[in-house]
Amino acid sequence: MARMSRMVTTRIAPSPTGDPHVGTAYIALxxxxxxxxxxxxxxxxxxxxxRARYVEGAEKQILNMLKWLGLDYDEGPDxxxxxxxxxxxxxLDLYKKYAEELVRSGWAYRAFETPEELEKxxxxxxxxxxxxxxxxxxxxxxxxxxxxxxxxxxxxxxPGTTEVxxxxxxTVVYDNAEIPDVVLLxxxxxxxxxxxxxxxxxxxxxxxxxxxxxxxxxxxxxxLLYRAFGWELPKFYHMPLLRAPGGAKLSKRTGHTSxxxxxxxxxxxxxLRNYLSxxxxxxxxxxxxxxxxxxxxxFDWKRVHVGAPVFDWEKLVWMNGKYIREVLSLDELAERVKxxxxxAGLDWRSDAYLKKVLELMRPRFETLKEFPExxxxxxTDDFDYEExxxxxxxxxxxxxxxxxxxxxxxxxxxxxxxxxxxKAFAEERGLKLRKVMQPLRAAITGRLATPGMYEMLEVLxxxxxxxxxxxxxxLIEA
RNA sequence: GGCCCCAUCGUCUAGCGGUCAGGACACCGCCCUCUCAAGGCGGAGGCGGGGGUUCAAUUCCCCCUGGGGUCACCA
Length: 478
Prior knowledge:
Layout: H1 2-5, E1 9-12, H2 22-37, E2 41-44, H3 58-68, H4 92-105, E3 108-111, H5 115-125, H6 137-145, E4 151-154, E5 161-166, E6 170-175, E7 183-185, H7 193-203, E8 208-212, H8 219-229, E9 235-239, H9 259-264, H10 269-277, H11 292-298, H12 313-327, H13 330-343, H14 351-361, H15 370-374, H16 387-395, H17 397-409, H18 415-428, H19 433-445, H20 453-460, H21 462-477
Parallel strand pairs: 1-2, 8-9
Antiparallel strand pairs: 3-4, 4-7, 5-6
Helix pairs in contact: 2-11, 7-8, 10-12, 13-14, 16-19, 17-21, 19-21
The protein binds one RNA strand of 75 nucleotides through helix 5, strand 6, helix 12, helix 18 and helix 19.
């Protein structure tokens, strides 16, 4: 009864230790989808319990990333909620209280070894040997009261076994001999992940823990903690780890892990989100391009594959191109592209003009960053001529001079006007069309690969075209 | 190394005992064509190995191999 009435609640619990990681975005996505699928809640909780690795501003970046991807959350550090605060550093008293409770109930004990001693024990025994279990409780309490630095460790019941059920893999039985007496509360009063995570997940009503596979082997620790507290277990789902092309898990060493990097490269949030969805999940009908809403609609854990996928930049870029040319509206695309034009120092005159250019360029760039690079000549006369373009202008100089006369004489630059005129021009001289087009293309754009000539002439306009023709001809004379 | 997870084209995947093993990216060719793309059509490319179970294994079981994860007062 109580179990059935629990609203599905998921969370993403990132550590503010650096740039917002694509792995975090990936896990957040599945947490978000599962919560929405069930009409439940999605929480963001900041796990800032490692003072050494804390990075100023990282929390803000993470929250921005989630918003950028469209993964809105119901509770979080910046918006609050019924279980505030959502930063673990602001919940220290809670963890201490629960750790002490475990000491009293016999599920945990105080240990007084120094880091140096631990290092020595690790070398000799291969890990902590639980020696502080032998300290009589009264003595341990006395030492603690006297202010002796110490940690609180989980007293793993031994011998014994602990069963862990992963919803994606089934049940795994762990021999408790393999489960270490992990530190729950550090000597600085901060909790470790294990304690803080379990306490908060319980207090915040998290019903479904969706996290990276890196946590799979420490799940028995968490199961033991739930049992020690007498709390109901959540369901566990361990998502595969994203891998770099080499094979190892995606890391700063093996690839680009920062979502900010992808954003800067001109990847659309929709495309990144869609691509990440494909890492393990597939639509029943095999569709690869789909919205968040469509994913939520179709989502089923049965369709999640746990083999670790390689994060492939090539396919991400292809998908980004697909969004640019087929999914976004021209208006949306124009808005997305503006910051990149600005960054390149380009001015687009008017939205109407920008959209006309975009219409022509849409099938010809795959990242927003590419647009200013490939379409520069639409916005300024200040562009370079490719080496091959210069040659093309030289070869076609005679043709260009004659062509200039023709273009000048045209009443307008609509395709309906320019196309027959240029074709007739070529035919009269017995020239293949390309013998006319390539020099012209090179002269007015500085490159050999551009959108179709007639559309381009219309967009650029007569003045610009004639001006550039003159300039190109002068260029080769010099 | 111990323990744990995983295993279909190069990559992402569909498959849930009987399929010509399907799709997507990338690659190659053709078409379209003023260039380059986009688009359309076609091609090449895969069930890691060995045992079982079964009339029948990509599919179920076991072993091996391979890959990954984890063994902190980091998460």
